[in-house]
Amino acid sequence: MTAHATTEKDGSAIVTLDGQPQKIIGADLEDARRKVANLVVEHAAATGEVVDFVTTEPNGTWEMIVHPDGTIHEKPEPVASPYLRPTAHAAPSEPAAHADTADAAEAAETPQEEATPTRRAMRESFLKTNRIEEPAAKGWRGTATRLGLRLSPGAAEKAERDDTFAVSQHWPGPRTIAVVNGKGGASKTPTTVLLSAIFARFGGAGVLAWDANQTRGTLGWRTEQGPHESTVLDLLPSATELLGTGAQSADLARYVHHQTADRFDVLRSQPLALASEQRLSAEDVDAIWNVARKYYRLVFIDTGNDESDAMWGRLVDHADQIVVATTTRDDHAEAGALLLEALAERSERSAQLAKQAVVVVSQADPRATTTNIKTVVDGFTSLAREVATIPHDPQMVEGWLNVAALRATTQRAWLGAAAAVARGL
Question: Measured on CA atoms in the order 74, 77, 78, 84, is the torsion positive or negative?
Fold first, then answer.
């Protein structure tokens, strides 16, 4: 016996049982899933027969088996025979097992010394190191879980869990990530803020976003201000004291601005001052960076636009990884590509940074087409380790940046971008 269901985002669904369609109206998609599941379970119980159930939703199709006792199982995938191993030279109908026989015969003719395994090596440890997979929490599988069944998560949910696990890690020693692009308006500041937020939300405190743009950096304008107006210029005279043995992490609260929702700290620049009034030397950069890495496990640096500035070069020298921020605009993408190519020629270490870079492509223009985005992504594929894309979101255009205010698809995209960065740490 078979059953089919098609469920829409608005909570409406059509369920076909024994060839008879029925319409279901739910309050939302989740409610419709529940009603569809109950209907199929009741049908299996009433008929006493197993039901092959296929349900289609906007984000995928699932196949399940519903038993008369109410239990639901995922339909198993076809499993290839373990005894067949395709080879380049064997005919399609020829068993591949003969290759194993020949290998065994050859091995028998060749004297080999076998190490005697130790008793510990032979014994299986009682300690298990595998991650325990929790049942599905989203989609149709999540609905089945809430009905008392235990289904494994689907591919999309597994991928999200893997990304969450990646950004939740803590690495031995601090890590510095420089967000770069020589063109203004290329989304360096939103990229710095939202990557910092994702790592802090999932991995806990100890994340700093540092505005190192000497020409009116706007990181402070896009983030929450603390109970003071301190900037990097206020911290610099206290760097030696903060690096002393008597300094405590709470002492930094007078210089950085804590983001209460997204849980990271911001070290602001002074956008009201001329660049000439806040020009920092390489030694100043070293002092600030040493303070940052003493108190924070992750330091994201929003760099300036002048790649010839000694400060910019010093920041890159301190970076463990670089993130190229760009939009779908041709000039932003070209500037990012030229930067990676220039780093590849700058030094051996810079070349390695360029090779391991992550590129984050933000769709700042809502009119950008899929072709526009693909062109930029394809152009960076050979230049960087990974390329992540962020969809257009009105909440990223202006004002404070906050992860919770973004659309769900945007939040998921930033999680993916952060995971790409984490894989390089």
Answer: negative
Please check whether residue 301 is in contact with residue 175, taking contact to mean a CB–CB distance below 8 angstroms: no
For residue 311, what pLDDT is reported? 86
Among 43, 46, 42, residue whose Cα is nearest residue 17: 43
Rounded to 10 degrees, the C-alpha dihedral 214/217/223/226 comes to: 40
Same domain for 148 and 173, yes or no, is no
Question: Which residue, 328, 344, 397, 381, is CA-closest to 186?
Answer: 328
Q: Are residues 190 and 322 in the same domain?
A: yes
pLDDT at residue 257 in the model: 97
Q: Which of 120, 153, 186 is the last residue of a domain?
A: 153
Could you tell me the pTM of the whole model?
0.73
Which domain, by its residues, includes 60? Answer: 2-75+134-153
Number of separate domains in the chain: 2
User: Which contiguous run of DSSP H or E holds residue 216?
Assistant: none
pLDDT lower than 50: segments of the chain: 78-110
**Distance, CA of 105 to CA of 107 (rounded, Å):** 5
- 145 and 228 assigned to the same domain: no
Instruction: Write down the pLDDT at residue 225.
Output: 94
CA atoms within 13 A on the CB side of 308: 0
**177-204: b or e for each residue (b if 16 or more CB lie within 10 Å)?**
bbbbbbbeebbbbbbbbbbbbbbbbbbe
SS3 235: helix
